[in-house]
Amino acid sequence: MHQNVILSTWLLDVFVKASLFLAIVWLGSLVLRKRSAAAQHRWWTLGFVGCLLIPVVSVVSPGWTPACIPAWMQIGAEPQVSTIANSEPPAVFSSPRNDGSLPFIEVRQQRPVVTRASRPPAEERGSSMPRGQESPGSEVAPAASATASLASSFAFSWSRMLVIVWGTGAGIILLRAVWRHWLLNRMLGRCTRLMDEDWIGLLSETSRMLGVRGRVQLLEHPEAHSPVSSGVWHPAVILPNDARCWSLERRRLVLLHELAHVARRDVLAQTVARLAFGLYWFHPLAWYGLLQMRKLRETACDDLVLSCGQQPAGYADVLLDIARSYRHQANATAVGMAHSSNVESRIMAILDSTRRHVSLSRTSARMLFAFAAALVCLVGTAEFQTRAQTPSSDTEKETESETQASDSADASLRDMRIRILDDQGKPLEGAMLQIGVWYAEGYDGYRTPKQHTADANGMVVLRLPKRLNILRLWPKQPGYVGQFKNFGQGTHREGELIPDELEFRLAKGHPIGGRIVDEAGQPIEGVHVRVKVDDVPGVSTWLTDSFGQPTVKTDSNGRWQLNNAPAQREKGTDWTFELKLSHDDFVTDKYWGESQRAQGVGTAELRRGAAEVVLHRGTPVHGTVVDREGKPVTKGWVVWSDEPYFNDGVFEAELQGDGSFRTPPLPEAEYPITIVAPGFAAQRRMIKVGSDSAEQPFELQPGKRITIRFVDSAGSPVPKVGVYLANSSASNTWQGSNALHNHKHPNVPDYGIPRQANEQGVFVWDWAPEEPVRYSVGAKGFARQEIALVAKSDPHVVTLASARVATGLVTDKTTGEPIADFQVMPVIVFRPNFFSTRYADVKQGAQGRYELPLTGSADPNDRYRVRFEAEGYRSIISEESFGPLDGRATLNAQLERAPARKGRVLDAKGTPVANASVLEGTPTWVPNTSNGEPSGFRERIGETDSDGRFELGATTEPVRLRVLHEAGFVEKLLQPEDDSVGELKLQPWAKVSGRLMRDGKPVGNQSIYFSALVNRGLGEPRFQDSYHAQTGPDGTFSFERLPPVTGSLRPYLGPWRDSPLTSAQSLPLELRPGERREVELGGDGAVLTGQVVATGRDEVPLDRQYSLNYLVSRDRSIRELPEDFPPLSFDPSSPMQLAWSLDPHFSDYLATREHHFVKLTPDGDLRVTGIAPGDYDLVIRLYEQPAGCLVETVGEKIVPVQVRGDETMDLGRIEVPCRAGPRPGSDMRAFEFVDATGEQQTVNEMAGRHVLMQVWASWCAPCLASMPDIQHTADDLAADAVTFVGLNIDEDSGQASRLAKQMNWSWCQNYLGEGSDMARQLAISSVPTYYLIGPDGKLVASATEWTDIKKQLAASLAATNE
């Protein structure tokens, strides 16, 4: 009797816990109802697993006591019962626990009196009174035995009945399952192995698609059974007897569905669920859950099939036919493909385009498992008691508090204390600190908030991980100048060198402001004014909008003001403030300072509050978008830029409900207009915007489905591959544009283009355009790739190479012992002698071991070397390099001990200079400087101490050392064998100021550049310097920090950019330390005019704007060339020859002489101003209008010019003989090329076929951007009479050949090299260039734009086929 009571008590306890657990699972299923079927099915599976574990957890685990049920329902806890006269102590029974205690349940007829006593400790609960033994102090009445006997008898009957009923139900359920399993085994016994090679090959292919790694048997049943999967540990797919007659597509779909069951382990899930159901058969939620699992299982497998790139309609047809044609047999340990009872709902789900047919991600699976496990532990260990028993002891509370404190402690975190003060040292209470943290790879711990507020002491305490990649800090306070501090990657040893305490002192801000008006001078209210300031050390660039800075708009008078600008610079030119203005009714600035510069508004006007800028109305682009049936497209965007993501600003507007669109006002120009609408192929066209712009109608076509399967080198799926469009600033994603992108960023809309492959490694985009699209793909552990693909019916299979990772051992060269602490970093090899060290990707090595991902280049085909550095050792760069397919490579290194090289910096008077910046330029690391100061977040900048001293690590590379300070500049070349730097004496900066003039009038808002005469080349230690200034409204400019070297000063003027200048004077300067120089560019002097006429081209026009022309002085030049000036192939003292321009250092030679760049109009008119008297050579070099890169002139001439005063000289008509190359109708039959088979051919031998010649170079970005569409066109026209011929003009034909093979371009390639006869005959002036030759051997058309020649090809083919 006692055992029955114990068992029934335990069952009752489990029933209550299981009911609670199932109720929570059911509620969870409601929460997940909008999630994938796979997630819902996994949740119910975990629910049934939890039901099996709850009884075990109840027995083996320590308990906890929730006070959540009424006293009369107390189960599994010991009640405190007062003894009453003439009553017997309660008879109590329980199921045993691992600690020896018994969870009590009282069995009696009369309700006991329960006292509000605290629960005894666990060790006291472990002892219970044996039956018949009296407790101390208890009194037993003479009639007690009768009462006890009655109570025992009553308990016995209910307990036994409970056990019998439960056991009977469980036995029936389990016996039924055993019977079905026996039937399955009998069916398996009648099956035969399917050994057909086609089936076996298809099984292998589909297994790889789904990531099924184990062996799966294919069996054939002699009867017409529905396809099923069976086996928990040894899976098999059973097919009906007529499966051999199925089509290939049907075979693939059936195998994918059945293998989806195998991949998801559905047989195991079903077995577990049935076992749990057998134990909880009496519970309604168990019946409901089992039914849901059956439905969700099949839907999840359907989703998995579709996620592998299969067409929904075709799969639905196969599913319906299977359900109709074959009978379904229920099995305990097998799952079938189609059951007629639910096939209709499945087909509706398959065809529902709004559903996301996705599988369960690993992250989601882990989250569900963690939640279910916690739930099982929580419910299984509960010992329910009444609310009357809730008080816990002080000891329990203290223990809980200590536990929480212990859990919160994390050894991986640190505190960083930051004080924000004003410039007087007073705390700025309420100051805001904006932070940006780039966490170390794999870190999943605490993440500090992005915004913090300083307390009354100006203090902010940041909780940060000890290891991190980048930390950026922006402290700001209204009315003060915001600051910026960057701890860049590779500069702080993964956080080790970031200080625990930091102090900011914010200077009081100064006002700047102005007024915004329209063309009529009327104020404009509501103009959004964004302001930034560049190159102010330690000051935040952004004065508005970003990083907690204010948003500024103009008031009703058009006025705006900002009060957080830095003070005026103490010496030299003031800081440069740039505005970006936007308003819905006016033309918005596309670039920083666009309107401001065009109107000559500078810093002086902004500081006075008198900066008046005029905004123009412009013209919006408007139109309608419809589908091919004429119905409006209501969801989508119009984009008016080819770089909406990388350019700063808004370049998109949503389509309206009636399909109409309207852009903001745009200035008159030609714009690329792209319509992006989910479900439709994107459409792009160029539109000229003017005052008479008409409505633009767009008719969109349905998009095409593209499926990409990502596999590793073994053919196994690679899950969660990132797939990105427009991942670089080169506009080559689609049709020469990056308007089609899938970036997730608050500055751009989310078009809904997928960004990731699913768990099966399948990426599906249902509305891709017909043209090729370039994708950037990558996954953790794999190398990133750039691929251009076209939407087609069959999936693309892309094999990902393993990520390039260098690992190895770094030891002391003398002792052979591992070096305890060192750093490694990748070095990109762009081409021979062209390197770039990625200090931002530095990794710490320890105890001789390291692991370094070789990343950083935008081109996945670049190779990498490795740089090794350690304190007290000479740094080295590996000779070995690693390519895109090298994967994980072992690279060991030995470092030799070498002391640091010490130096000291003194000023011109011999006084030590503190806080000077020390930079190292090497062949593999080229630091950037701007106007005499280091620039860029990632520069490695050393600093002198208070005595002017510094140290440099020894290295195997030559080093060009440069020291920058407001007191001056010094540079020294160090060889690897030099063991000391010595003393360096600063040379004071030279200062140059002046004015830019044209025809006696100042020219404002123009860029002026200074360049050192010696530009060091690849393979040399060097710097990348920029010295620039902007002319004010009065044409003045100033350089306060120029190095005392020989160089040239010039305004910017080029052939492709509109400018108020028609010529630009370049002055050679030999600057001395501390020199102050005043110059005038384009000032007083003669004026030269004339017209350049291209002869020898008949009626073929030539736009002469595309030319490089110089008026070069014979008299005024550098008196003495620097010692390291590059050697020239000609004698510069002799008369100028056209051949000089072929010398690679011709531009360096020009910089030694005073000269004017001459900009021609399209008609060839020239006007050069400010020419000093003397003898000159006018060098004219004409080119065809390029679409990409200039290659060779079509005409050249040198005209001697003598200037004797300041009069105007007219050169009249200057005839330049020009080559025109082949023209439409020219006979091309004599041109030779090598075809795809390697045979020499002539165009004449291609009679009856079109020949398309494409001239390209590997260094030409527009050439490479057009390649995917050329490949797509060649594939599409493979059956047509068209031969594609590539003509490459690279100097290194081997490099071009390797690129063509790597990109798998299918058309024949001919490598002409530079200056070939064929290139001269074709008059190739720029690349890319295309020549279309007709079936008769005559030229149909030539063009520099691929889209133009593609249209010509389509038209010519259509005319030929008529």
TrEMBL record:
InterPro entries for the chain: Beta-lactam_resp_regulator, CarboxyPept-like_regulatory, Peptidase_M56, Redoxin, Thioredoxin-like_sf, Thioredoxin_CS, Thioredoxin_domain
Signal peptide: none
Subcellular locations according to the entry: Cell envelope
Domain Thioredoxin: 1222-1362
Record keywords, A-Z: Cytochrome c-type biogenesis, Membrane, Redox-active center, Transmembrane, Transmembrane helix
Region annotation Disordered: where it falls in the sequence: 114-141, 387-410, 921-943
Gene Ontology MF terms: oxidoreductase activity
Transmembrane segments: 14-32, 44-64, 158-179
An example Gene Ontology biological process: cytochrome complex assembly
Family annotation (Gene3D superfamilies): Carboxypeptidase-like, regulatory domain, Glutaredoxin
GO cellular component entries: cell envelope
PANTHER family: POSSIBLE SENSOR-TRANSDUCER PROTEIN BLAR, SLR0241 PROTEIN
Name under which the protein is recorded: Redoxin family protein
Organism name: Roseiconus nitratireducens
The organism's taxonomic lineage, starting at the top: Bacteria, Pseudomonadati, Planctomycetota, Planctomycetia, Pirellulales
